Amino acid sequence: xxxxxxxxxxxxxxxxxxxxxxxxxxxxxxxxxxxxxxxxxxxxxxxxxxxxxxxxxxxxxxxxxxxxxxxxxxxxxxxxxxxxxxxxxxxxxxxxxxxxxxxxxxxxxxxxxxxxxxxxxxxxxxxxxxxxxxxxxxxxxxxxxxxxxxxxxxxxxxxxxxxxxxxxxxxxxxxxxxxxxxxxxxxxxxxxxxxxxxxxxx
Length: 202
What we know:
This protein has four helices and ten strands. It has two domains: about 10-95, YaeB-like fold (2-Layer Sandwich); about 130-190, Ubiquitin-like (UB roll) (Roll), CATH 3.10.20. The protein is an alpha+beta fold.
């Protein structure tokens, strides 16, 4: 294990959880909303867990990967220093193949996050594979857009999607075919340079 100098230590992490002095990132919140992990499972994992990896990143700083259990369910929680001496939960997930052979050990193909130059997820270090996203949701000026069949890259570990810069540019320019979903109503249209954009409030 890497030296624990200048990284969140397990006693400090547990103390922040016991005192509810922590924040959950948007990335981790996605997993909560999908029902893959719960706040209780994150807290359980931290309170009985231990640090199994140290991640160092020039922009994000240092963070500690904690493995703990909620009942028999293994949970990984990436922890970092937050604002005002609070704990920042960067992401939380259930370790699984092909990245992990078991909750404690990475597979040989999984490698070490933040230390490889190959295509790895910025958030969890998982393997990234090319896919076609059935639905890609994003918001623009307070409106929810659901775009069908978007070519993308997907982290097989945590589910984070990566879209090319060229494709992202098309989201905001004429010529993009959009399927916009408003609860039970679905509308399809073109954004064209010589027409006003049709924006339907959510």
